[in-house]
Amino acid sequence: MLDALVLTLGFEPGPLVSAIASSASEGFAKEARIIVLTAAYPDERSERAWLQLQQVFKMMELDRKLNVKLERFEVPLEDMIEAVLYIKEILKTVNKGSVKLAITGGMRALGLALFIAYFLTEWAEEPRIEVYLEGRGMALEVPRLRRLFLVELSGAHLELLRFMKPGVAYASTDLAGLLRKDRSTVYRYLQVLADRGLLERTPGGFKLSKLGLLLR
C-alpha cells in the first residue's frame, strides 16, 4: 500500500494519470498523498495540464473513497541546489512510509532535481522509482542505486557536518570545544570532509560547500 506518490508535471497529464491508475491498482493507503511537482514558471500549457489532472483525479474518486490528497508544489529552477533542497524538504514529509517516485514529465531539470533529492534523503523504506517514456504510454523501473553511491562517512563525520551552519567558517579549535572532542581528531574529520568536497577551506577554517549543504 502506497503512502505517497510523487510525480512531475509538464504539459501533458496523460503520464500522471497512468501513474496514478497503476498505483491505485496496487493500492493506496488511507489518507495517502499524491504530490505533483511542477516548474515554478508561469505557463498556460502547464496550468491546463494541472486542471485536466484534477478533473481526472475527481473522476477516480480516490479522495472520496480513501481521502487521498492531490497536492501541487512549484519548484524553483533558477538554481539546481535550491531546487534539490526544495524537493528534499517535501520528500522528508513522506520518507517514513511506502513511497513511489515517478518522473512523468516536465523539464529535464525538474526530473533530475527529484532524482538527486531522492539520493540525498534518508528513507525508512527505499522508494520505487519509475521513468515514463514520452509518447509510449509505458514506464521503466529504475534500479535502486542509492545505496551504491552513498558517501561513506562515519557517524562522527555526519554529526560534525550537521552541526555546521551554512555560511559560517569554523576552526577546528572552535568545533573541538563545542563538540567536546580532541582538536586533532576534529581537524582530521574536517580534512576528510573537505577532501570529499563537502567542506570548503577558508582563511577562517572550514565552511559547508554546496554539496555539503545538500548532504547536511
Count up the domains: 2
CATH architecture of the largest domain: 3-Layer(aba) Sandwich
C-alpha Rg, in Å? 20 Å
- Give the low-pLDDT segments: none
How much helix, percentage-wise, in residues? 40-55%
Amino-to-carboxy terminus distance: 30 Å
Largest sheet: 6 strands, mixed
Question: How would you characterize the overall build of this protein?
Answer:
By secondary structure, the protein is an alpha/beta fold. The protein has 2 domains: 2-149, Rossmann fold; 155-215, Arc Repressor Mutant, subunit A (Orthogonal Bundle). Helices cover 46% and strands 23% of the residues. It has 10 helices and 8 strands. It has helices at residues 14-26, 44-60, 62-66, 80-91, 108-119, 146-149, 155-163, 172-179, 183-195, 210-215, and strands at residues 2-8, 28-39, 69-75, 99-103, 128-133, 138-142, 199-202, 205-208. The strands form 2 sheets. The protein has a 6-stranded mixed beta sheet with strand order 3-2-1-4-5-6, sandwiched between helices. Strands 7-8 form a two-stranded antiparallel sheet. Strand 7 and strand 8 (205-208) form a beta hairpin. Helix 7 crosses helix 9 (183-195) and helix 8 crosses helix 9 (183-195).
